[in-house]
Amino acid sequence: MAEEEDIVLSEMEDDELVQQMHDDLYDGLRDEVVEGVNILLERGWAPYDVLTKALVEGMRIVGIDFRDGILFVPEVLLAANAMKAGMAILKPLLIETGARRVGTMVIGTVKGDIHDIGKNLVSMMMEGAGFEVHDLGINNPVENYLDALEREKPDILGMSALLTTTMPYMKVVIDTLKEKGIRDDYVVLVGGAPLNEEFGRAIGADAYCRDAAVAVETAKQFMERKHNQPATG
Amino acid sequence: MRQDPADAAGRAGEPSDRRLTEEGTGLGDNPGRRVLVIACGALAREILAIRRLNGWDRLELTCLPAILHNRPERIVPALRARVAEARARGWRQIVVGYADCGTGGGIDRFCAEEGLSRIDGPHCYSFFDGNAAFAAQAEDEITAFYLTDFLARQFDTLVWQGMGLDRHPELRDMMFGNYDRLVYIAQTEDPALENRARAAAERLGLRFEMRRRGYGDLVPFLAGAVGD
Description:
The structure holds 2 protein chains of 2 kinds.
Chain A: H1 14-26, H2 30-42, H3 47-67, H4 73-96, E1 103-109, H5 117-128, E2 131-135, H6 142-152, E3 156-160, H7 169-179, E4 187-191, H8 197-203, E5 207-208, H9 212-228
Parallel strand pairs in A: 1-2, 1-3, 3-4, 4-5
Helix pairs in contact in A: 1-2, 1-3, 2-3, 2-4, 3-4, 4-5, 5-9
Chain B: H1 17-22, E1 35-40, H2 44-54, E2 59-64, H3 75-88, E3 93-97, H4 106-114, H5 124-129, H6 131-136, E4 144-147, H7 149-153, H8 155-161, H9 172-176, E5 181-186, H10 191-204, E6 207-212, H11 218-226
């Protein structure tokens, strides 16, 4: 019978360690992920590289397997907790080192809905991808969104709903933005289990995002387009 | 010997709750003039009880696994396959024993394509409560988590294990922390089941409430299906 070898993270080469951190994140091993983050930092890795290459990439793999039905909500939550612990170390360092801000997002679950697991994952992944995220929490009436848009002046507005009965409220928010003539000032992304692309189009959102990884990719694409737009006036 | 409630069968000949949750039930041939309900396994006992009480022998039932409740995106593909199978076996009169059930209009689109009708409402706990009454108090109950008789019986399988809380109880507050009460919408008067629902509320750390509603809007839907 083969003896199981103890894994010693500090003895691993960088590439091997990053792979191991992806596995540990996948398995929701919080302490091991924190240890990995600290080792890479001690080896002189830039905080941004630790974040993107070890944590965000690991979480991207988790997202794919969730989408494909290999992982389920509890495993994703454990992975998210592990990533959160790693990010808690990196966040102050990222601010200190002035890592590039990709954009700003206001996000919240709509009025009548208290579900926030998916929204919290999106917030975390967006932060991991370099966005400044202002999370409004759950059960947000249109006024909350309007106040936050005025206050934070974000690039992106994200709305989430889990219930068939609450998802139409996203249209109320978008219609209010139109009435006020500010709809086109923001990229509006929507998500949640009962939504689909057709619904996103029908209510006038810029995109429906199937999961947190797609939300990040979509947000990045919109930001790139924005930066590539020629200056007018 | 005590029977595991998860294995409980209804009346003689009815499939067990475990089978209704995980496998569903099959489909018979020789439809004749009968009407087929293709339903969620979570509604099997209630549909059979309504059939028995009303003498609607023309009504035939086949069930998809109730566990699909946890992955609503899989409901329409499963329905599509079962409807195709039923049509291939000669069934002509078919109705869908689902509400919207978290499909975001997916079941409605499927029904429109196939010319079928479904039960009105967003979820089973809504039509058991009565859709109008449920909608009227929705705003006051946004922090409510609902159980029906079936969900109370299958709480361990569908909720506790289904959400992974048996393996990771530490995730309970991440998943249920925004709820403040569990509302048990009861179809039958069953003290044992009430106790199970109460225990479920306690395990989730939620206040317990109960409304005894019977079969709600499911009865008129089935009456319409059999033309009664």
